[in-house]
Amino acid sequence: MSKYTVVALVGESGSGKDTLMRKVVSWKPKKFHEIISCTTRPMRENEKDGVNYYFLSEQEFYNRIAKNDFLEVSRFNNWNYGTCHSSLSTELPNIGVFNPEGIRSLQQEKDIDLYVYRIKCSDKERLLRQLNREIEPNVDEIVRRYETDKKDFAVFDAEGDYRIIDNETETDLTNGILYLRSLPFKQRNYPGLTAAHRWATANKK
Hints:
The chain is an alpha/beta fold. The protein has helices spanning about 15-25, 60-65, 100-105, 125-130, 140-160, 170-180, 200; strands spanning about 5-10, 35, 40, 55, 70-75, 80-85, 95, 110-120, 165. Helix 1 (about 15-25) crosses helix 6 (about 170-180).
């Protein structure tokens, strides 16, 4: 039996994966343990250390690797990301945001029951969210992330080992929250993720 249950949300910048995770975790009763990962990328406007990520220097990150602190590490958009063993719970299903390389690393871990959800919305909506979430957005950085995401997710989507949750509208967001909170993740006979499944679209009226 695996030691940890991990619900992994993955999507391009601006897809709303962080918002979905925070909403899922904040609703009562408590059903999930939030994973707070480490990263070497700069802190964005409105982010807080220890809330969104643990923001580390390159040296601090590599020191943790040397101490075997990380369950998985990955490099995405030229920054390092990692999940510490200490950030996971054995009592509740864990939920966190990961990049495609992080997902691949988690898939190799025998101690994890992994459930992957691809968060999707239109390119237009993603770009608008990124432009509007900061007072003075770095447009060059937004464009760079957009182009990098296109390449990385073209490969990831071809692998297809996930289920899809649409996150275009507020209704989609609510549906996604209700869906994730309704699933019996602690049951070991929960069906495996062998093909993409567009749940939100199928349940729209």
